[in-house]
Amino acid sequence: MVDFTIYHEAKSKYAYIYDKDTVHLRLFTSKDKINSIQVLYGDPFNYSHNKNNNDKWEWVNEGDESTLMKKEYELENNDYYFISLKPKYKRMKYAFIVNNRYLYGSREIIDLKECPDQ
Fold first, then answer.
1. Closest to 39 in 3D by CA, of 11, 15, 56, 74
2. Range of the domain at 18
3. What pLDDT, on a 0 to 100 scale, did the predictor assign at position 72?
4. Of 8, 43, 44, 103, most Cβ neighbours within 10 A?
5. Which residues contact 87 (CB under 8 A, 6 or more apart)?
6. What phi and psi, each to the nearest 5 degrees, are found at residue 27?
7. Beta strands 57-59; 47-49: pairing state
8. In Å, how far are 42, 61, 76, 79 from 45, measured between CA atoms?
9. CA distance 49 to 108
10. How far is CA 82 from CA 23, 71, 74, 92, 101, in A?
11. Once rounded to an integer, what is the mean pLDDT over residues 28-55?
12. Is 70 within the bounds of a domain?
């Protein structure tokens, strides 16, 4: 069970185009419950073969360890995280890995330790 609060909204003050090459993302979280937030992002149509199984296709994540969000500011009970991204293409999908365990996307939070495929 998740022991933190997290909020993000696409196409809002939490996710917007900053300039012709840059996208800004923000997350609102419960205070002092988050150790790390990594952003997975890339073109929604960019897939390649799995390294271990050439019959399996996987979405290509453009992010890496440099896509860790930074704590932008703190309030009494909440923290705000921020990242500026420059996607390779003019479109992108994204999700967040919270505390190296939870995948937070547009519809749900998935505990990666409970997923057999991970």
1. 15
2. 6-108
3. 94
4. 8
5. 23, 41, 42, 43, 62
6. -130, 145
7. antiparallel
8. 9, 11, 41, 33
9. 26
10. 11, 6, 12, 17, 19
11. 90
12. yes
The C-alpha atoms of residue 87 and residue 84 are separated, in whole angstroms, by 10
d(C-alpha 104, C-alpha 68), whole Å: 14
Per the structure, the count of domains in the chain is 1
> Does pLDDT of 38 surpass 60?
yes
CATH code (residue 75): 2.60.40.10
Size of the chain, expressed as the number of residues it contains: 118
Q: pLDDT by residue (tens digit) across 25-36?
A: 999 999 888 999
| Token pair 């799995």 in the structure block, residue | 50
Task: Report the C-alpha gap between 50 and 31 in whole angstroms.
Answer: 38
Q: Distance between CA 100 and CA 38 in Å, rounded?
A: 8
Q: What is the pLDDT of residues 60-89, one digit of tens each?
A: 888 877 899 999 999 999 999 999 999 988
pTM, 2 dp: 0.86
CB atoms near residue 70 (< 10 Å): 10
